[in-house]
Design goal:
Low-confidence stretches: 1-15, 110-129
Shape: elongated
Strand content: 15-25%
Structural class: alpha+beta
Helix content: 25-40%
Distance between the termini: 56 Å
Strand order of the largest sheet: 8-1-10-9
Length: 331
């Protein structure tokens, strides 16, 4: 592959090579760059955690449709969560997060800086807070179907591939169990099964998408916390939802994974959160782990050439020295 022409002075930053663009940065058409001609609009998930009730219907629907094995129902000891996290046999996981927060006992402040619910009782003209309030944060986590998917980039067998819908799927019959994809994922989503070492993760119900149906988890969600559709439409809807919440006195509402210019080029499954990403077990600034591969190979190539040049000089210089000595002796 050849590099793009470098722009003239003052015309902006230097153009990146095609390899660099495919590994990091904004990517408007991942399916097209994967070789699909005239692919359908990219689809994805928008998970609005503000309306999640923790029913785990998405977990059950995912397991039923994809015939996933039971993988333990042990309580963590930290909350009422009994599935603990995403894994090879848990492609949807509803996190339960309990927080001690001051409980608001008055009307919303003019600037809307309070996230907490009102308690029962007479209205107060001046807002106040009481300690010891409990709130639940619930969020249905899933594979992010990254625009730049490191798991796909490092797979040596082609088991992981990009679909025409822009999603990332594992073909379990092609996976050889090498495990390269596991440390490559910046979210820690993909996992190998102990029984045979093969890797598994959410496919966004690729078989259902091909039949014009929405994924099982979104179909089963009773509150529309999990919304499925064209990714551009979901991003617009999510922005309006955040604005609505913030105007209603929920300034902590924020989107996560929706920016096309973030460290993974934007996620195909993004979230509306009510606290910092770390509270939900999400990395605050994920970066695709293969982003720096081109630069690393260039540096490695330069180092190899330097070593070859040094080795050649180590043989040539003594030879030249001996030749010079012989000429001097003949004189």
């Amino acid at each position: 592959m050849t590099a793009d022409p470098v722009p003239e002075a003052g015309a902006g930053p230097p153009a990146r090579s095609l390899v660099d663009r495919l590994l990091s940065g904004p990517e408007p058409d991942p399916a097209g760059d994967a070789g699909y001609e005239d692919p359908p609009p990219r689809v994805g998930f928008f998970t609005d955690t503000s309306v999640c009730i923790g029913c785990k219907a998405c977990e059950v629907a995912c397991k039923e449709w994809n015939a996933l094995p039971e993988d333990g129902l042990s309580l963590t000891g930290m909350s009422y969560d009994n599935t603990q996290g995403l894994g090879a046999s848990t492609w949807r996981h509803v996190a339960f997060i309990e927080q001690n927060k001051p409980v608001r006992t008055g009307p919303p402040e003019p600037e809307g800086r309070t996230l907490l619910p009102l308690t029962d009782g007479p209205a107060q003209t001046e807002p106040s807070q009481e300690p010891g309030g409990m709130r639940w944060l619930m969020s249905s986590d899933v594979c992010k179907h990254c625009t730049h998917a490191a798991c796909l980039d490092v797979c040596p067998t082609g088991s992981l591939f990009r679909t025409e819908f822009g999603t990332v799927v594992v073909q379990e019959d092609i996976c050889n169990g090498c495990g390269y994809c596991v440390p490559a994922c910046p979210y820690g989503v993909i996992e190998q099964r102990a029984e045979d070492g093969r890797a598994f993760k959410c496919t966004m119900c690729y078989d259902r998408l091909g039949a014009g149906q929405e994924p099982a988890c979104a179909k089963a969600c009773p509150t529309d916390s999990i919304q499925f559709g064209p990714l551009d439409e979901l991003r617009e809807r999510a922005a309006l939802r955040v604005e609505q919440l913030q105007e209603s006195g929920v300034p902590e509402a924020r989107l996560y994974g929706h920016e096309p210019d973030d460290g993974v080029g934007g996620d195909g499954a993004f979230f509306l959160l009510l606290d910092e990403p770390e509270v939900y077990g999400l990395p605050p600034a994920p970066v695709v782990t293969t982003r720096d591969l081109p630069a690393m190979w260039r540096h490695a190539g330069a180092a190899a050439l330097s070593l070859l040049a040094a080795g050649a000089l180590s043989h040539v210089l003594p030879t030249l020295g001996r030749a010079a000595g012989l000429r001097k002796g003949r004189r």
